[in-house]
Amino acid sequence: MAEDDFFRIAGVPLASRLLLGTAGYPSPAVLTQAIQASGTQVITLGLKRTLQGGDNGFVKLALEAAQAQGARLLPNTAGCHTAHEAVQLARMARELYGTDWIKLEVVGDAHTLQPDPFELLAAATELVRQGFTVLPYCTEDLVLCRRLLDAGCAVLMPWGAPIGSGQGLVHLAGLRTLRERLPDATLIIDAGLGAPSQAARALELGFDAVLLNSAVAQARDPVAMAAAFGEAVRAGRTAWRAGLMAPQDFARASTPVSGHAFLLGDQP
């Protein structure tokens, strides 16, 4: 593969631009098959759910599937509401799974599951100080994202829409601005995607990857949907590299004839 086909997290090259969650699948076997079908190289795992005994064997099989595929584990702090709670959970994840990678989630609103910017920044700053590779789930707020980068976060993960909503790229204007103003940052759309076309759109806009869970786990056929998302992110990235046609407010003929001489046929 060409060098540009990869993106990097903390210097680690990744060919797949699809990160996959592991919650809510109908069975461990389906989860394993979905991981394989997606081609993902990063899977996320909610430590709080695991500690509360809600995995039913999913964690073990997810780890085995990830290892067989050469995928990396990205534990997350889903369910945390304070910086202190998130930091403690991240430290537990490092002990349990032997990885410094952490998807940092600190929720500020129980209805929208919108991140708390103040607690998120505090947690990110402390975790970076403790040697973690921090991937914060955040909004598209440009100032917050700059502060998170200044704190040492390796990647930013702005939402497309509220978690599990399937609405797609609702915050499109802000996301465009974020990509334009932070051209060198690694940006992964996290949350709110419901269809492969939405994932492709994110890659077409220049985002480096997408992370999703519900759109695959809740599909009628999660394995087929995982494969569809894998194809969509590849198509979106290819389109971005090729250069998308700029939209315009008026029609423009694809084969214009104005200004060109042509012969008229014999008239009856």
Key phrases:
three-stranded parallel beta sheet, five-stranded parallel beta sheet, 10 helices, alpha/beta, globular
Concise structural overview:
The chain is α/β, with parallel strands linked by helices.
Give the total of beta strands. 10
- CATH 4th-level superfamily: Aldolase class I
Alpha plus pi helix count: 10
Average predicted confidence as pLDDT: 89
Second-tier CATH architecture:
Alpha-Beta Barrel
Strand content bin: 5-15%
> Residue ranges: pLDDT <50 for 5 or more in a row?
none
State the end-to-end distance.
Answer: 60 Å
Top CATH class: Alpha Beta
What is the radius of gyration computed over CA atoms, rounded to a whole number of angstroms? 21 Å
Number of domains: 1
Biggest β-sheet: strands ordered side by side in the sheet: 5-4-3-10-9
Task: Describe the largest sheet.
Answer: 5 strands, parallel
* Backbone shape: globular
What does this structure look like?
Helix content is 41%, strand content 14%. It is of the alpha/beta class. It has a single domain (16-242), classed as TIM Barrel, CATH 3.20.20.70. A five-stranded parallel sheet has the order 5-4-3-10-9. The radius of gyration is 21 Å and the shape is globular. The model has no long low-confidence stretch (mean pLDDT 89).
